[in-house]
Amino acid sequence: MTSAGQQQAAQRLADVVRDEGRRVLATLARTTGSLTVAEDAVADAVETALRRWPVTGVPDEPRAWLTTVARNKALDTLRREAARVGKEADAVEVAALNAPEGPPEASVVRDDLLRLVFTCCHPALQVEAQVALALRTVCGLATADVARLLVLPEATVAKRLTRAKQKIAVAGIPYRVPDAEDLPARLTAVATVVHLVFTAGHSGGETLVRPQLCDEALRLARLLVELMPDESSLQGLLALMLLTDARRATRTDADGRLLTLAEQDRSRWDADAIAEGARLVEAALRRSRLGAGRFELQAAIAACHACAPSLEQTDWADVVALYDALLRVEDTPVVRLNRAVAVGELAGPAAGLAALEAVGGLGRLHLWHACRAELLARLDRRGEAVAAWQQALDCRPSPPEEDFIRRRLAGTTG
Amino acid sequence: MPTYAAILYSSRDADWTAPEEGPVMAEYGAFSQVAGPAVTGGAALFPTSTATTVRVQGGKGGDVLTTDGPFAEAKEVLSGFFLLDAPDLDAAIALAAQIPAAWDGAVELRPVIPMAG
Fold first, then answer.
1. Where is the DUF6596 domain (chain A) (predicted)?
2. B3-62 residues touching A, CB cutoff 8 A
């Protein structure tokens, strides 16, 4: 076996584990009732495959192979557990798991994945744990990769995951899709976790964008839309992320410096992503009608930007109207800040500044000071603009943002 | 089916036996009715002014130190507990949300370790 062949097999296996392993895990988590047992079993099966496949070749049905091997491993573990604590009842359940069956049908896998998503995003778990758990189990990432993407020490993530899995097992967090009456609230939690994964990829850390994290969030959102095609909030979420991500390549220049919307080369925006996002927005708004939630509305705003041929040709009246609608479902200072910026474009910098200064409680946010500085500069109130840029710097922005603010500051004084 | 301890914290350090607490106690009675066999045990506690905290210093058999009052002084007061049988955490949360302490303080749900035999 050549090393190239081995690499190929390893790559093939990595792909299979990514797309099929998480499905195997979801089903095994349900049948064993333990995420820990399921994870260990899948990890064992993967390890065995890694050892054998380079020699034997990748089987015709890798998922079936992984399912069988993982199920047998889980069975061993559960039998040992049952024998250790002397529980006959558990042994009966183990026997049921032992029943010969092929890989579960697609619809069963779909439902199992959905259960797993809701388990990972259960409100009885800390949000930080929800994010890590979703990346680990639903996306099928290794703990080390989760840690790298969240910019956390691996030990911290490992501890967080262990604690969460123990709580799921001991406190009896169920593997099931919530009842219709609880679904809206729980769906919000799921969407929030996915959005957090995306935002972490889009704005966190030393570098401006960690593309893998954005990709994982998009993958999760696509999965959710596929699982629950009637939920407009999920369509909105996917659209919002697609439309934001479409600008990924143009957010910085060749030297990695942050560019404003006005400076970005729109011809390099991802037209396919924008087209898909715009289609989803339309469908989401049609479906939600007057009940559009934050994701539908934020996506609609993102669509206004993404579909405009230039900054000047953006339909600012539409943007402001959408912000007004957003304020009715999510009245936060940050939404008011964004609305004020749009007002500045629609009705001029003086109107924008008035709207901005009416927003309270953002004195510690660099964005508020930076937007204020921008509007002051446009009104040619340079001294005040410089002071505002300075205040923005005092708020400890991330390194790329700090660099951006310093360049604007130099531009204002120069 | 797992058992959960629903530990009740109340915003008031009340004497639940006092006549003016009648309406609250009636609410607890109503909860017991609704929960039915899911409640397998529990108790309401006299106020913290009746509490004694006991510590043994220097390991087992050491000096017994007693202090007047509850173990921890807090804004919310440990006022009682229920033992609940529920199929999973969601069901336990649904039950806990009907305990009057949930809107007059908080209810902490803790899974109970099953004891052999």
1. 186-284
2. 4
